[in-house]
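I hope you will forgive my troubling you with a question about protein structure. The record follows directly beneath this note:
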Amino acid sequence: MSGLSEAHARRICAEADRRFDAELEFIKDLVRFPSLREHERAAQDFMAEAFRARGLEVDRWKIDVEALKRHPGASPVASPYAEAYNVVGTYRAERNDGRSLILNGHIDVVPAGPVHRWCSPPFEPQVRGGRLYGRGAGDMKAGIGAMLFAYDAVRSAGLAPRGRIHLQSVVEEECTGNGAFACLLRGYTADAAIIPEPVGEELTRANMGLLWLKITVPGDPAHASGAYSAGVNAIERGWLIWQRLKALEARWNEERGEHPHYCDHAHPVRINLGRMQGGEWVSSVPAECVLEVRAGLYPEWSVERGKAEIEQAIAEACALDPALPPAAVEYHGFHNGGYILAPGGDAEAALGAAHKRVCGEPLKACASTASTDSRILGVFGSIPSLVYGPACTGAHGIDEYVDIESVRRVTKTIALFIADWCGVAET
């Protein structure tokens, strides 16, 4: 490994193993916080204390909504920010002649869904069969634990990184990415970043762009008997719009051969109907229906192209009822293009060397059909952003879990990366 001796590597890995039980307990503690959007504050207080206990310089601040609104790259604010706090713990190197690094993870999780369908309560972490179960266990509180205890492994091995390190715990990743954006606006930058999202110990080469939109569909309300007028059912009209959007999804997927990172993927683009609400009374023809939709975009595409094609599909469906007003489209939440990590950089080489040292095989790259905060740091911060984390099953689903030994390996890999990338000195 370039710049890192085998003796140092062995010491770091031994410390990661020695501290792994404590790391697993830390991740369990994080899972116990139901840090849904608008409810992240307690978990962020916990992270601030964890940073403070390690002697890091702690910056905990409430996100400035107005600053986000002024930047064209930020996504529209989707929910109240009264409890939206970011926390950054900074290590400042005494020598400071090494390369700097951001370790970034998001603290927010998505709703658990029907709790009775889980094998155990989603916010009561359980270990079974080498797996840690719980909402957020994989996405991505195990990653936060891995990056923090990777830093610990370097320090407890008697080594001091020679470059500045920012450990970031951010909100809003699951709906806008504005938490990571707020870190960038606050001035946090570095020579490279690692985001330990649960991608199965592979390097994410490409991330999709993403749009969230709300479609409000008017109908023509009437008595359900049809005694006076048949009316026009807004829910049925909304369903016609959804069928058009699914046809658009199919057409976009047929174009995957034009996108080298996704040409071998069976179904790279997903347009998801996340919510559908409508109707006022069982015996009334519904006057309104609201669809909330998530649409993935190829990373080479602009947001404007995606919006134009989506709006065209909606307009075509509305044209079937020309006497009624067209549906209204509002964009909220994710509103961003994708990110492609250029191959061959120094950071990727350092991560590949660390991964091979721990796992005994070359680092593989993959293309994600999701979106991550790498686009924020990579596109707007010009920071090479490596998405690399443990293996998770059931993210956003029932019985989410993370593979425990995968977390151990990722922790070691990130620790070796820190030492190699930043350089180390004996303490």
About this structure: The chain is about 35% helix and 20% strand. Residues 23 and 145 are 6 Å apart (CA to CA). The radius of gyration is 23 Å. The longest strand covers residues 209-218.
